[in-house]
Amino acid sequence: MNNNRKLAAVVVGLGLVTLSACGSSSGSGGSGGSKSVTLVSHDSWAVSKSVLADFEKQSGYKVHVLKDGDAGQAVNKAILTKDNPQGDVFFGVDNTLLSRALDNGLFQSYEAKGSDMILPEYRVDQAKHRVTPIDSGDICVNYDKAYFSKHGLTPPQSFDDLVKPQYKNLLVTENAATSSPGLGFLLGTAAKYGDAGWQSYWKKLKANGVKVVDGWEQAYNQEFSGSAGGKKAKGDRPLVVSYASSPPAEVIYADPKPKTAPTGTSYGTCFRQIEYAGLLSNAKNTKGGKALLDFLVTKEFQDDMPLNMFVYPVREAAQVPPEFQKFGQPAKNPEKMAPGKIAENRDQWVKSWTSLVLQ
């Protein structure tokens, strides 16, 4: 979900990344004699080598990872190839796209071992167990502290603030039709202003100079003036749609590390995102896929996840790094939307948004 997942939260990347092996140790065993299991994901997937090696040693499976672009792109491709899937497990479908995956029969039922340790507020599809919650995060506007200090401006703190004249031509966001954070930001405005009000809000946002790019990578690491990548690219937008967990990444990966994050979060602009994984229908190695899903909810993986993918764990008592506690607290009152409402309206909202904002 976040900061390129090396700097990222549901990051965006275009194009198919070739199949790559992760970790070490091959082991033996597996369904049908297979010694490998394949995880299909968006480009933000990451795990510590030592943690993955532990799974491979204990399970006997070699893990291969196929990164397939932004979450929206990866989900759509997985649906198109569901009869002959590219792998065994899919990771990274979020609550904005979950109904599309379930309605198209992307996953088969499996209740992962240890799923009883997942916090109740993240559990869905309890009757069929087609997906397992893995992580959560908040899609929010981030701001460049140095820019606002230099210009004597108070950073925006709410959706309402973003349409004010003093923030004209300052915001860059992602395309809601191609990017997971872009779609989440759109849903956040729909949750805030309702069915009748979100289009009027976007008209104001467009009139106030919002810039739309294809995905998170371009928005955050090229257009946003507050990120390390944006500074190198001479980005000139001091506001960007990213994640509440993006500021700690700017501290963790800086050399030397600053005492405080150079970017901040506008907590009145947040939408809660939850990511899931599932056993793909027609997976060639179902036994290995089940073992991999079990691994994703272990405490070892959940503790490892924040500093690799810049998301929050969903397992009870999982550890959150101190940098997150200091610089990347989750939103206290993020906008939320019931999965059924997302399913009912998402495609039409995206179509209307595209006509309104991009044309």
Can you offer a commentary on this structure?
This protein is an alpha/beta fold and 359 residues long. It is built from 15 helices and 13 strands. Mean pLDDT is 90; it is low at 1-33.
Derived structural class = alpha/beta
**How much strand content do the residues show?**
15-25%
Distance from N terminus to C terminus (CA atoms, Å) equals 28 Å
- Gross morphology is globular
Q: Helical content, roughly?
A: 25-40%
Kindly state the number of beta strands: 13
Question: What is the succession of H and E elements?
Answer: EEEEHEHEHEEHHEHHEHHEHEHHHEHH
Q: What Rg is obtained from the alpha carbons, in whole angstroms?
A: 20 Å
Mean pLDDT: 90
Biggest sheet statistics: 11 strands, mixed
- Unreliable stretches, pLDDT < 50, 5 or more residues? 1-33
Helices, by number, come to: 15
SSE layout:
Elements: E1 2-3, E2 8-9, E3 20-21, E4 36-41, H1 49-59, E5 62-67, H2 71-80, E6 89-94, H3 98-103, E7 107-108, E8 132-144, H4 145-150, H5 159-162, E9 171-174, H6 180-193, H7 198-207, E10 211-213, H8 216-223, H9 228-232, E11 239-243, H10 246-252, E12 263-280, H11 286-296, H12 299-304, H13 306-309, E13 312-313, H14 322-327, H15 339-358
Parallel strand pairs: 4-5, 4-6, 9-10, 9-11
Antiparallel strand pairs: 1-2, 3-5, 6-12, 7-12, 8-11, 8-12, 8-13
Quickly list its features.
359 residues, alpha/beta, 11-stranded mixed sheet, 15 helices, 36% helix, globular, disordered N terminus
